[in-house]
Design a protein that fits this description.
By secondary structure, this protein is mainly beta. The chain has a domain at 51-164: Immunoglobulin-like, CATH 2.60.40. Helix content is 10%, strand content 34%. It is rod-shaped.
């Protein structure tokens, strides 16, 4: 009789252990053996900041001003997309080949000779898909040492920067 009682206690203990949370209970399994969900696990990820400026390979072509032969202006419109609130800015610097300055003969931002750049828009909300007009200006350029008819001379580089808006 003692052996039967021990066997019954062991059988009940095994059934109790198999009924823990997140497990399928053998006595509840449907007759058709269908798939039963046990639990749901969340999947998360970190979303990084991203910005896209399309047509980056395009150039800003400056042309001579109609009012002053030493002033040049040029603009190009870029498509800008982002996923966070941000502020754009732009700087312009004379293009240098090694230690040689480009043949625009502008002393960078000194006196009456300078380069400048401006943006049509600087603040963007998340999810923007907007057009940004970037314009470069050269004032007081001395082109007297360049041969007439020279085309597509690389004279400056515009750098567009971004910072999150606080």
């Amino acid at each position: 009789m003692l052996k039967k009682g021990l066997f019954i206690v062991a059988a009940v203990a095994m059934l109790a252990m198999s009924a823990q949370a997140g497990e399928i209970k053998f006595h509840d399994w449907p007759c058709a053996y269908s798939v039963m969900p046990i639990c749901t696990v969340q999947v998360t990820m970190d979303i990084g900041y991203w910005i896209q400026i399309k047509s980056q390979t395009k150039v800003i072509k400056m042309t001579q001003s109609s009012t002053n032969i030493h002033n040049f202006d040029g603009c190009y419109t870029y498509t800008f997309s982002n996923n966070f609130p941000c502020i754009l800015s732009a700087t312009i610097a004379r293009f240098n080949v090694g230690t040689q300055a480009a043949p625009l003969y502008i002393v960078a931002n000194s006196g009456s000779s300078y380069l400048s750049v401006d943006l049509s828009q600087t603040m963007f909300a998340p999810g923007s898909n907007q057009l940004v007009n970037v314009c470069a200006h050269a004032v007081g350029a001395d082109l007297s040492v360049l041969a007439g008819g020279t085309q597509n001379v690389h004279v400056a580089d515009v750098t567009i920067s971004v910072v999150p808006q606080t």
